[in-house]
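CHAIN AND CONFORMATION:

***
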Amino acid sequence: MKTPMSRTEEGLSASELVDARIAELGDWRGEVLAKVRAVIRAADPEVVEEWKWRGVPVWSHDGIVCTGETYKEVVKLTFAKGASLEDPAKLFNASLEGNTRRAIDIRKDEAIDEQALADLFRAAVALNTTKKKKGRA
């Protein structure tokens, strides 16, 4: 199934901008961003890629699920409602002190537990979907 796309002011789709960011990085961060993006898309074929805050990839389904920021030392996946999610694989390793968000910092040469990431992403989508349905009732 094709991933739904949102358009930016430049006329490019968010997915096209994420593609460009991955290519622009041209190093391990681009490879990691591409890998987690593939995991996210496989976990939720209905996920919407967005491009927000001057260049941050965002994956949404009934609201923001997570962002994918790239820094010099890490690729950071921040889950908007991560504090409300079970994390049996202990993927969250950053932003642990807040009441809402949780993040996964992935460093160079760190392995990604793709199955655990997919499960965590699906749980975040389920949380968004459940809260949206409750809001309609």
User: Anything to note?
Assistant: Confidence is low (pLDDT under 50) at residues 1-6.
